[in-house]
């Protein structure tokens, strides 16, 4: 009897439409995404019992393409397709090794008013520039959880680059998410859009705000981290599949007496940290400038660049 190879999450033993929906809602839509989790993580994120999760992970892992080896040459070829998106600051681009990379998650974190949203908007304009000008020659999707998208800012930034502001606006697809659940579902919507439009950048502003507001107290911490983790995996996958830059913003705790005591620590702690390949810590500097610090990058030295936020957008400081 030949074994039927399973391909979808519904094909897993004991997974019906209701459980499949739970997985999808938590951001797991492929065997690979399930097969690479630990039972605890998967259970926290979906509310399904750990024992069942362990069974699903085992079966998903056997049937997904996990752990296949690539040669150094193949990996080098994949690296060669990585695009670099300019930030409009040459010193900051240099710090990043050429710009914000595609196929990676870049996280901007910092306090209120540090410039996270301004960076995201600038990158949304720049992503539309041709590759020769430091762009990605594509369109942009933004998952906006804080209602901070400002078309007026896009228009100023586009005009400063001598781009047609209406055209630039028409290539930015903004999805407003009112809670973390919608935020996670939005990634699926972006995948739909990407079937029709060449989405080369996906931004989430803010990645953690809704989670932070909804999961309060120690008891819910594991569940929150599980969900953020699933969300980050979905984002990373999108970046990989579409050779897109993924940009997320994250706040730091502003209340020194809070549970997350250190005001320079980003929300979401290690889980966000381990999935973001590039983390940039923004803080206010002298005379309205912003200090951008590259923190724990895999192949670049930790260093700082100084930028200004001007009417025209981000510029060298
Ligand atoms: P939260 O989302 O509240 O955590 O803050 P954020 O880090 O996203 O800050 P944001 O990017 O919104 O930065 C706001 C700051 O950018 C303002 O305080 C201004 O200093 C600067 N800024 C925003 N728009 C303009 C503008 O049109 N001209 C100039 N010169 N500066 C601007
Ligand atoms: Mg903001």
Automatic annotation (TrEMBL):
Residues 81-252, 257-317 form the RecA family profile domain. The keyword ATP-binding applies. Keywords: ATP-binding, DNA damage, DNA recombination, DNA-binding, Nucleotide-binding. SUPFAM superfamilies: P-loop containing nucleoside triphosphate hydrolases, Rad51 N-terminal domain-like. One of its GO terms (molecular function) is ATP-dependent DNA damage sensor activity. GO terms for biological process: DNA recombination; DNA repair. Transmembrane segments: none annotated. InterPro entries: AAA+_ATPase, DNA_recomb/repair_RadA, DNA_recomb/repair_RecA-like, DNA_repair_Rad51/TF_NusA_a-hlx, P-loop_NTPase, Rad51_C, RecA_ATP-bd, RecA_monomer-monomer_interface. NCBIfam families: PRK04301.1, recomb_radA. Belongs to the eukaryotic RecA-like protein family. This is DNA repair and recombination protein RadA. It comes from marine metagenome. The lineage of its organism: unclassified sequences, metagenomes, ecological metagenomes.
């Amino acid at each position: 009897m030949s074994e039927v190879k399973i391909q979808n999450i519904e094909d897993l033993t004991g997974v019906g439409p209701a459980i499949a929906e739970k997985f999808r809602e938590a951001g797991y839509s492929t065997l690979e995404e399930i097969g690479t989790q630990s039972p605890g993580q998967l259970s926290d994120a979906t509310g399904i019992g750990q024992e069942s999760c362990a069974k699903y992970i085992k079966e998903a892992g056997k049937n997904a393409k996990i752990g296949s080896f690539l040669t150094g040459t193949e990996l080098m070829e994949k690296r060669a397709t990585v695009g670099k998106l300019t930030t409009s600051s040459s010193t900051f681009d240099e710090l990043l090794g050429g710009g914000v990379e595609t196929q990676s998650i870049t996280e901007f974190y910092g306090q209120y008013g540090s410039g996270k949203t301004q960076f995201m908007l600038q990158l949304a304009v720049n992503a539309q520039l041709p590759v020769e000008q430091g762009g990605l020659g594509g369109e942009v999707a933004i998952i906006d959880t804080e209602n901070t998208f400002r078309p007026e800012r896009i228009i100023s930034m586009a005009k400063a680059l001598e781009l047609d502001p209406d055209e630039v606006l028409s290539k930015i697809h903004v999805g407003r998410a009112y809670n973390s659940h919608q935020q996670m579902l939005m990634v699926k919507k972006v995948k739909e859009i990407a079937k029709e439009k060449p989405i080369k950048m996906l931004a989430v502003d803010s990645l953690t705000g809704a989670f932070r507001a909804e999961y309060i107290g120690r008891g819910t911490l594991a569940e929150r981290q599980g969900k953020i983790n699933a969300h980050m995996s979905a984002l990373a996958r999108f970046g990989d599949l579409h050779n897109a830059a993924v940009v997320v913003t994250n706040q730091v705790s502003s209340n020194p007496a809070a549970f997350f005591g250190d005001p320079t620590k980003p929300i979401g702690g290690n889980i966000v940290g381990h999935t973001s390949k590039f983390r940039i810590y923004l803080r206010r500097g002298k005379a309205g400038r912003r200090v951008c610090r590259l923190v724990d990058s895999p192949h670049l030295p930790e260093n700082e660049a100084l930028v200004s936020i001007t009417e025209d957008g981000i510029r060298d400081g």
